[in-house]
Amino acid sequence: IKAAPKNSIFLFHACAHNPTGVDPTPEQWREISDAVKAAGHYSFFDMAYQGFASGNTDTDAFAVRHFVKEGHNIALAQSFAKNMGLYGERVGAFSIVAQDPEERKRLDSQVKILVRPLYSNPPVHGARIASTILNDAALNKQWLGEVKGMADRIITMRALLKDNLEKLGSAHDWSHITSQIGMFAYTGLTPQQMDALAKDHSVYATKDGRISVAGITSGNVGRLAEAIYKVKG
Hints:
With 233 residues, this protein is an alpha/beta fold. 49% of the residues lie in helices and 12% in strands. The chain has two domains: 9-135, Aspartate Aminotransferase, domain 2, CATH 3.40.640.10; 152-232, Alpha-Beta Complex (Aspartate Aminotransferase, domain 1). Helix 1 (26-39) packs parallel to helix 3 (62-69), helix 5 crosses helix 6 (137-167) and helix 6 crosses helix 9. Homodimer.
């Protein structure tokens, strides 16, 4: 951040970093904020997994709220596709913090110019579902509980995968599986090992070694661990 040219634009994942599964700590976010401000950089936040990092949507919003509190005029691309189970509805929000009402007018006009040829008018069905959930106290409470349940399930699947690998006798340190957070995890497998997973065990994932923890269940974790053990040891 300090080495970048002045007034650069930085894209940050607000929480549950995809693909690494490694988030800055609150203290590190404070340091990042200070460095961005000192160099006059602009912050663009991508928040697609709010609630899936800690299980708490407020906790996962720390970075965004801290930057705004510190006077950054950020842009925020926010998705409800995953945390509301609305993947097919393409629902989210794009927010920009303006310096003043006049800048807000200029921003509004420019965003409309960009939006018009892209999709003109966004689909409203998913947006109305999200709005209903967020504005109804009972539904919002239920939703927050379900988000926490999903986050806890992901944490449990990470622990099960690590435990199964250790029980198989793997000599490798798999602690990174449980220290990472969110829907995805880096296994540390090479592209060649990932090819072997697909070819020999019908386990498919990206060649960089990333797997979707959300796709792991108590029913398939044993088979996954065995496949990883056979190609990695």
